[in-house]
Amino acid sequence: MVQIVVFSFAGIMGKLDEYSTCPGFREDYMQKLQIFVFKLQDSFKLALLRNPSHQADMVPEDQVGPGVALSPPLVSSDAYSALELWESRFRGKMRLFWWQLLSWRQGRQRPETMGFSKSDSITQDLVWRIEEILAGRILSEQRLAGLLRQEGFWPSDISRALDRAVDGGQITQLPGFIKAPWGQHVCSRCQGEYVEKAPCLRCGKGDCLRCVTCSSMGEHRACSTLLALQHTQRMEPLERIKPQLKLDYDLTFAQQQASKELLQFWQDGQGKALVWAACGAGKTEVTFALIQRALSAGGQVLFAIPRQDIVREMTERLQAAFPSVTVASHYGGQPWFAPGKLVVATTHQVLHFYRRFSLAILDEVDAFPYQGNEMLRFGIQRALLPQGKLVEMTATPNVRREYKRVITIPARYHGFPLPEPELVVSKLQPWGAMEANDLPHQLVDNLQGAQGPWLVFAPTIAACSRLRSLLSQALERPVGLCHSKVEHRAAVIKQFRDGDLDIMVTTSVLERGVTFPGVGVIVLYADHAVFNVSALVQIAGRVGRTAKAPRGTVLFLASRLSASMKQARQLIQELNREARERGLLTSEETP
Ligand SMILES: [Zn+2]
Ligand SMILES: [Zn+2]
Predict the structure, then answer these.
(1) Measured in angstroms, how far is the CA atom of residue 123 from the centroid of ligand 2?
(2) Among 338, 369, 453, 545, which one is most buried in terms of CB atoms within 10 A?
(3) Is there a contact between 415 and 587 (Cβ–Cβ < 8 Å)?
(4) CB-count exposure of residue 583 (10 Å: 0-12, 13-18, 19+)
(5) What phi and psi, each to the nearest 5 degrees, are found at residue 115?
(6) Domain that holds residue 250
């Protein structure tokens, strides 16, 4: 049994709040933490307790004297910052003074000693169960408690087991936010610093801090407590069975070379590699041998994809390639608990993993927006075992210097070079003011001259709508429209695929992940900021993907030549040059 995780980025931007759809998640579970100090033989011990009656678990039997409460029950972030203060006091020279002062005061106020006992048959079982659930994960206390309550455990037992496991060092406990030395609050779930204060139903505070960065994964607040296993060796025992790898097709020569290089990367013990692949060169299959190697070594593998819509498809591909392995698909619903050593999940899922994977494969790194990117990188690092390896895959390598090893797949299976974009600079009217006779002739000539299908890209929905109506006027035939707000998008795409429409005006929604045989692309306003290098390379990558139609037109039209336009062309040319040098352009005709 083996598992890979593929996660997708779309969830971060989307509306999906899987916490609220997760059965068994109880909003009302809220445990506060109270600070206690205990006097040992020649030292003091400070502890955060969910309940004063758990004191007996904290100190050796012969030394149990009542502890002294240093705070009222506090929400976790407050408890941790108060704990810091008390730790410095009880480390300092005045510690005996503090002890006497506090115990005298508490003695006067609450003379009765707490009745507590050590009888705890259920607690040890529960600690084991908690360790089992937390293996390779980092979860909020609410989430963990929700699951345990579903399994029939009592809240009082859960809180006692947690206190004991934290005290015993089996579990790492983190407050919702940590205060950075420069005063900023940092989210312990995603390391984000973008926080806001808002009334909280859970802890009842009017100004409970809330993380904005990871909010789409469900609310994370200052009153949340995160739990993970302290030691990774508590994970499932290693299984050294070599999983069968089954492919119904052969890898191309370029893919085979990349696949071997990845195995070498594993062998060499490097931490991080970049796979730079031409669009449509098939980079996924290249990782399969490496995945097999990692699984055979007893490890678990994470395969990460930025878009939720292809998680399912990727799960199926991996399951077909590794029939003897359980592939877990993590997205929406209650996915965080799906078992499998090969896990496919959405991006927000990565923040639920903790020192679990010996290999993580991050697909389409270039597709992550900046903010998500930071969070993702942190999440991936935490999800990997300390010695875990990371393979990032992209079509637009922005920072090649970061990687000791860059593996390229410069050619597609059919052996033709990638169609290189033609850059055309011509004064374009702003789309709001454009009329039919303002349409650039390069656009109209192409659409009238050559057979479709044609994808015409424009930067915004407004620009697309305008262009569509102008083009249908100018060309006197139907022109399709595709953007995120088009209601029957799938139907429109089907019409285009079936040839009922041969021109489609679209935003970046069709920029990646789609193949239309024989398509040509024209990007209008290609100097617009939405058309960054990665987007332009992906758009160009729609052309010439099939053996039947391995060539095609790629035209970038703009009022000025942007750096992204130039870079996109350079990257494509660089791959073609390398493919030619390595003799991979087997079908290229001599000009
Ligand atoms: Zn966060
Ligand atoms: Zn709160």
Answers:
(1) 28
(2) 545
(3) yes
(4) exposed
(5) -85, 115
(6) 4-10+240-409
Q: How many domains is the chain partitioned into structurally?
A: 4
- Cα–ligand 2 centroid distance for 219 (angstroms): 10
Question: CATH number for the domain including 258?
Answer: 3.40.50.300
CA dist 405 and 426 (Å) reads 40
For tokens 């995120």, name the residue.
484
If you measure from the C-alpha of residue 554 to the centroid of ligand 2, how many angstroms do you get, rounded to a whole number?
Answer: 53
258 plus 392 within the same structural domain = yes
Q: Is residue 590 part of a domain?
A: no
Among 278-287, 325-334, 430-439, 473-482, the minimum mean pLDDT is found in 325-334
The answer as to whether 466 is a domain residue is yes
Structure tokens of 330? Answer: 């993590």
Q: Do 286 and 393 lie in a common domain?
A: yes
483-513 tens-digit pLDDT: 988 888 889 999 999 989 999 999 988 888 7
Tell me phi and psi for residue 93, to 5 degrees: -70, -25
Task: Please give the distance, rounded to the nearest whole angstrom, from the Cα atom of residue 426 to the centre of ligand 2.
Answer: 56
- Helix 288-296 × helix 253-268 angle, to 10°: 30
**Least distant ligand from the CA of 222:** 2
Span from the CA of 185 to the centroid of ligand 2 (angstroms): 15
Name residues with Cβ closer than 5 Å to ligand 2, which is an ion: 200, 202-203, 208, 221, 223
CA 375 to centroid of ligand 2, rounded, Å: 22
Ligand 1 centroid to residue 241 C-alpha, Å: 38
Of the candidates 199, 234, 269, which is a domain's last residue?
234
Residue-level length of the chain? 591
- Residue 24: enclosing H or E segment and its boundaries? none
Name residue 565's amino acid: M
3-state secondary structure at position 68? strand
Residue 8 has φ and ψ, to the nearest 5°, of -120, 155
Say which DSSP state 589 is in.
Answer: P
Distances, alpha carbon 485 to alpha carbons 225, 306, 453, 529, in Å: 39, 21, 22, 20
Cβ atoms of 127 and 18 closer than 8 Å: no
**Is 586 a member of any domain?**
no
Residues 247, 344, single domain; the answer is yes
Total-model pTM? 0.79
Spatial contact of 419 and 540, defined as CB atoms under 8 Å apart: yes
Asked if residue 22 lies in contact with residue 83, where contact means CB atoms within 8 angstroms, the answer is: no
Rounded to an integer, the average pLDDT of 244-249 is 86
- The letter for the amino acid at 389 is K
How many other CB atoms are found less than 10 A from the CB of residue 414? 17
CB neighbourhood size of 336 (10 A): 23
H/E element, 405: strand 405-409
Lowest mean pLDDT among 397-411, 453-467, 552-566: 397-411
Element (H, E) at 197: strand 195-198
